[in-house]
Design brief:
The chain is mainly alpha-helical. Helices cover about 55% and strands about 5% of the residues. β4 and β5 form a beta hairpin. α6 runs antiparallel to α9. The radius of gyration is 19 Å and the shape is globular.
Length: about 300
């Protein structure tokens, strides 16, 4: 089995990276922070036109006709760019909510457990709920992931979201993977540029070890996420996805922390983007499948396999 992306998949990935670099580069990211506008509807529609949300819909239904492996590659790029918004929920709603596939409808979901929901004020629909419920704003760790607490009982029943949970967890893991790879890039670049005692700090063993650890975590997560995308249709899919989410969450959080450490005092400033990756990684780690839920699922599968 070959887990390497094909030429078509690499081209697809490069196309989205170019789109995001043009439409949501660093200046746009910082502008979002300054204005507090976490979602750009024009960009959302451009993503829809590019097939981001309709990627897995059959061509007969107006989609692109591709699968989870291709979706994972695109979500990895979105995570790398720190693109905000309920990307996963809108993608999952492409077949059921009018306008989601085209990017003209923004769909969110009760993917944080309980009554918490992200991007409620900006959403047109909520996955598994007839209409968006009222909610009270809740302070979020990530300034570009606004949270609301809906009134008790307004959330989607667990069974309504069950068909989406595995794909949601995998696509969120892909977002985390993209962030982990990006913070690795930022750390390595800074280590090569910043000089101390007349030498780039990347020449010092302590910094080398930090960057090497980041690379190992990111590549482990990449392998797990890509493999889970390929095997998702098989019986072992849920366990593979749970493992991918665990590794990707750990890589995104730990890599952001180590990237901050490599940047030293500069990393702690608002002007550096490192803290945005860390805060987004914290929020995503609680979405669709938490570490505790993934561990329970894996433990149950191991127990079942051990019983004769």
């Amino acid at each position: 089995m070959d887990f390497q992306p094909t030429e078509d998949q690499r081209d697809l990935k490069a196309t989205l990276r170019d789109l995001l670099a043009r439409r949501y580069g660093r200046e746009a990211l910082r502008a979002s922070l300054d204005t507090g506008a976490a979602l750009d509807r024009n960009l959302w529609r451009e993503l829809g036109e590019a097939g981001f949300f309709a990627l897995r819909l059959p061509e007969a239904d107006g989609g692109v006709g591709l699968g989870l492996p291709e979706a994972v590659l695109l979500f990895e790029e979105a995570g790398r760019a720190l693109l905000p918004g309920p990307l996963v929920a809108t993608h999952l709603a492409a077949a059921t909510v009018p306008g989601a596939a085209a990017g003209t409808t923004v769909v969110t979901a009760f993917d944080l457990g309980g009554d918490l929901i992200s991007h409620l004020a900006e959403a047109d629909a909520v996955l598994g709920v007839p209409s968006p419920p009222p909610g009270e704003p809740v302070r979020s760790a990530d300034p570009l992931t606004p949270l609301h607490r809906a009134r008790p009982g307004a959330g989607a029943p667990a069974e309504d979201l069950a068909p989406y949970r595995d794909a949601g967890a995998l696509l969120t893991a892909a977002l985390q993977l993209g962030s982990a790879l990006r913070t690795l890039e930022l750390a390595v670049r800074y280590a090569g540029e910043r000089e101390q005692f007349g030498r780039p700090i990347g020449a010092f063993q302590a910094v080398k070890h930090l960057c090497a650890g980041m690379l190992v975590r990111a590549e482990l997560a990449r392998t797990a996420v890509y493999a889970a995308a390929v095997t998702a249709s098989r019986a072992e899919g849920p366990g593979e996805i749970a493992a991918a989410k665990l590794l990707a969450d750990a890589a995104a959080v730990a890599n952001a922390r180590d990237c901050l450490q490599v940047h030293g005092g500069m990393g702690f400033t608002w002007e550096a983007d490192v803290h945005l990756h860390l805060k987004r990684a914290w929020v995503r780690a609680e979405q669709w499948r938490t570490a505790g839920e993934a561990e329970e699922l894996l433990a149950a599968e191991l127990l079942d396999s051990a019983v004769p």
